[in-house]
């Protein structure tokens, strides 16, 4: 070990370094190269030094990397420069690793750029570090120099370059690397194969991911998890869960990441029962407490409408990361539980967890639900100025929702136009929805026209427009909208709702009179509608776009998929049980009103997940407060 004196500040060496050598005078890393040497890469020399000196230097640098002490690491670097070890192959690798571990990537870059002849592992660690930090430009340049400098490519560089292609979604480069790997028969290595699966998955090519997986002669838990992840990322949740079953059939033991992916697939399907079964299985196999599993459980419960279970998992976690906090905040916000979302956000700040981009989406959406305009603006400012997070469309859309919620519709329009989100259909639709709520039909028409210019086939907008005309008793307008739809060939995507009863998922399509249970469902629906008419239900014909008589319109409304699913759920579930329905479109006005009244007469809690949010309907009130 070096003596105590050599541990002093690197500036001590400035006077001692002989002229012409790299002086660590201003920085311990070689950014102060002597004239004539600046910027050129010298080769890792491995120049003869005493073995014990290089070993002790190596040990010292590794030790500082281990404890992540940047200051001590810099001192070691200074010592290495002084004793001529700074270009030694192993010392360079250790220095790179140390600077990366201490989160001083810029110093690592200086070491990396000043010396050449690194091995594949060094390239690998640089690429991974850049990818972790989202510094894709830097990883590209490392990939380029790796292609030029590393002669012997085994699986390590392939994994690194494929990781880069996955993160930057560079499918073309990824395919080229795949072709290279094929020539060397390396695609059959489980490491390269899994990296290929991951790359194709992230580049939205689930089929190619599957092919890369299929050819693997030996599939381990990593490759199985990679293919499941590829499918989940491409929203092929059922297939991903099928892989999970296959893996178990093959006798492969799932690890915590496999469970996490499977649970995220359940979240995508809102398949609470399968999620519960996975949770039990993870518990049995001792994976339940893992951070990734707990985060996935929160996500699964939050997306399946069981926010209380999500909260229970959150509370039980021994430690949490930013993903855990974000999942629960967003979960509460989607459930219309904005106060809870804000309270968790304050707990997060108290726990000194740094909020991220996603956190603020949840916070701003909670502020919007609570109508907290000033707070919303305050957090948007804090995010930009104090946290240095660049706001994205999601944040701006929340701000539009916030202004709308407060009835400041003109301001919202101005906000959209002045923040360069004028082409964002979601923001305009949020404003259009509020124009309906606040009966500002003049602005509503303008906004609808704006949306139809951007997206001429947006059925929802035609429905809202027709709705606004109907509410203003402008039936000529309603006729005009229908005509426009016919002319433009706009067809309403059929509404599909699904509900899980027992272990089976039952799917209902609007107006589907051939459903196996149609007689039973019709009887139940008629009975329910008679009951709610007594307490004030009036069918909302404005949402019916068909040109038919009122009587037929009423029938169209009755057979909306979510009403059919609800009737089926009421028949086939025990008294008092919560009904959970998923829908492919936004729930319509008529179903929303009807469900609120049905929750009163049946004393049931009804949870509907539509494309926008959750509607937790109980005792005649919806958690969305009629804004969605
Ligand atoms: Zn409906
Ligand atoms: Zn609602």
Automatic annotation (TrEMBL):
One of its GO terms (molecular function) is zinc ion binding. Residues 536-628 form the DYW domain. SUPFAM superfamilies: TPR-like (SSF48452). Residues 1-54 are annotated as: Disordered. InterPro entries: DYW_dom (IPR032867), E_motif (IPR046848), PPR_At4g14850-like_plant (IPR046960), PPR_rpt (IPR002885), TPR-like_helical_dom_sf (IPR011990). Keywords: Repeat, Transit peptide. One of its GO terms (biological process) is RNA modification. Pfam families: DYW_deaminase, E_motif, PPR, PPR_2. PPR repeats lie at residues 220-254, 321-355, 356-391, 458-492. The keyword Oxidoreductase does not apply. Residues 1-43 have a biased composition (Polar residues). It comes from the Eukaryota. PANTHER family: DYW DOMAIN-CONTAINING PROTEIN, PENTATRICOPEPTIDE REPEAT-CONTAINING PROTEIN. This is DYW domain-containing protein. It comes from Triticum aestivum (Wheat).
């Amino acid at each position: 070990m070096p003596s105590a004196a050599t541990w002093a500040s690197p500036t001590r060496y400035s006077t001692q370094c002989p002229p012409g050598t790299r002086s660590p005078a201003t920085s311990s890393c070689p950014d102060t190269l002597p004239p004539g040497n600046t910027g050129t890469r010298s080769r890792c020399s491995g120049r003869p030094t005493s073995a014990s000196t290089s070993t002790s230097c190596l040990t010292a640098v590794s030790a500082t990397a281990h404890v992540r002490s940047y200051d001590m690491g810099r001192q070691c670097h200074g010592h290495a420069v002084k004793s001529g070890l700074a270009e030694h192959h192993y010392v360079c690798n250790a220095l790179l690793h140390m600077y990366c571990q201490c989160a001083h990537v810029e110093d690592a870059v200086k070491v990396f750029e000043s010396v050449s002849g690194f091995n594949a592992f060094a390239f690998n660690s640089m690429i991974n570090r850049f990818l972790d930090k989202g510094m894709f430009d830097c990883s590209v340049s490392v990939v380029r120099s790796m292609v030029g400098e590393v002669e012997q490519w085994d699986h390590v560089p392939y994994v690194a370059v494929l990781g880069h292609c996955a993160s930057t979604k560079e499918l073309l480069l990824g395919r080229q690397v795949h072709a290279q790997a094929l020539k060397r028969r390396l695609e059959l290595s489980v490491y390269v194969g899994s990296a290929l699966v991951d790359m194709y998955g992230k580049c939205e090519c689930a089929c190619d991911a599957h092919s890369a997986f299929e050819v693997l002669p030996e599939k381990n838990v990593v490759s199985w998890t990679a293919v499941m992840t590829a499918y989940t990322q491409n929203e092929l949740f059922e297939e991903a869960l099928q892989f999970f079953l296959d893996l178990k059939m093959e006798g492969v033991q799932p690890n915590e990441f496999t469970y996490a992916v499977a649970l995220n697939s359940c979240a995508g399907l809102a398949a609470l029962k399968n999620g519960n079964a996975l949770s039990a299985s993870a518990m049995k196999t001792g994976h339940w407490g893992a951070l990734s599993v707990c985060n996935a459980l929160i996500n699964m419960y939050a997306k399946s409408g069981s926010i209380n279970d999500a909260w229970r998992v959150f509370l039980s976690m021994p430690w949490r990361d930013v993903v855990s906090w974000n999942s629960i905040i967003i979960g509460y916000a989607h459930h219309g539980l904005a106060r809870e979302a804000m309270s968790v956000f304050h707990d997060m700040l108290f726990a000194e967890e740094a909020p991220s981009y996603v956190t603020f989406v949840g916070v701003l959406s909670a502020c919007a639900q609570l109508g907290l305009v000033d707070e919303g603006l305050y957090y948007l400012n804090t995010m930009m100025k104090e946290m240095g997070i660049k706001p994205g469309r999601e944040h701006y859309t929340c701000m539009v929702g916030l202004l709308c919620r407060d009835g400041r519709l003109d301001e919202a329009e101005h906000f959209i136009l002045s923040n360069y989100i004028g082409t964002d259909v979601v923001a305009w639709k949020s404003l259009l929805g509020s124009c309906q709520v606040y009966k500002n039909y003049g602005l509503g028409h303008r906004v609808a026209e704006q949306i139809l210019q951007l997206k001429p086939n947006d059925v929802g907008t035609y429905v809202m427009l027709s709705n606004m005309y109907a509410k203003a008793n402008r039936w000529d307008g309603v006729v005009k909208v229908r005509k426009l739809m016919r002319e433009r060939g706009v067809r309403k995507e059929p509404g599909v709702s699904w509900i899980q009863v027992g272990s089976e998922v039952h799917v209902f399509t609007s107006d589907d009179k051939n459903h196996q249970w149609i007689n039973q469902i019709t009887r139940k629906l008629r009975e329910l509608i008679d009951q709610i008419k007594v307490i004030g239900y009036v069918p909302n014909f404005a949402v019916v776009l068909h040109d038919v008589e009122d009587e037929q319109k009423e029938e169209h409304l009755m057979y909306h998929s979510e009403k059919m699913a609800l009737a089926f759920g009421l028949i086939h579930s025990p008294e008092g049980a919560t009904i959970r329905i998923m829908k492919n479109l936004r729930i319509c006005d008529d179903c929303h009103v009807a469900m609120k009244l049905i929750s009163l007469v049946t004393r049931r809690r009804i949870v509907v997940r539509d494309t926008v949010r959750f509607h937790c309907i109980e005792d005649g009130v919806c958690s969305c407060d009629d804004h969605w």
